[in-house]
């Protein structure tokens, strides 16, 4: 029976039934269905290409950002290297300064006050070593004829009117300061002399101060004590003050090392030339104001008197 049915199945195809799966496979194999699948596949490929392109574009942008970051990082590394180098140099200098500071603390130098005190003491010692010296300014060049000691011993007693008694010599040595003068310089260089006795030196100096203006062969001669450079600078600072005092007729004295003493309106001492100048300027301003007020009142009185006369004449 089975064989018959099988044989009958092969002989009668009309009696066979078609399943849904078989129909679907038949539809898939159709030409229309194949065209739609190819279109769908092409669309998917285009979408994938677009996605890939956008991803590549994003990656290229990120790569550009990475390049910029690397450049900035390299610049930062260079700056950091420079900073490290400078910091190391500063550390070295700080170490040197610390070492120097420790050395200064171990052996402190002299302060300004100490240096000024030492300078004053040196000036004082130098001035004491020059106690027997005098400077002579105004003697023409060559007047001593090669022997300044003999020349001064002959000229000073007669010029100053100071007898020397029975002394044969009272000057130990003398010489010119600086090189020989040129032809266009008539007064010559300063002549300096060292006296054997400080008493003779003081006597001649006081005689010169009492004489005032000294003349020798119609040449003006000035005599000064010999001081150190520091003392001379201090005394020169009062030059303007001395000029003002001379013009005003005020008696004053310049004591050693540099102190002016005025005797007008009470004795006053000035160790600072600026303080003395400021006081003198204040006095001048007061005098000017007083004079100005006096002349103003005088002119006003004269004007009032003239007005009174005019009124009387009008009457």
TrEMBL record:
- Compositional bias (Basic and acidic residues): 32-42
Q: What is the lineage of its organism?
A: Eukaryota, Metazoa, Chordata, Craniata, Vertebrata
Q: Which organism is it from?
A: Cyprinodon variegatus (Sheepshead minnow)
Bias (Polar residues) ranges: 1-11
- Stretches for region Disordered: 1-42
This protein's name: L1 transposable element RRM domain-containing protein
Spell out the Low complexity composition-biased ranges: 12-31
Superkingdom of the source species: Eukaryota
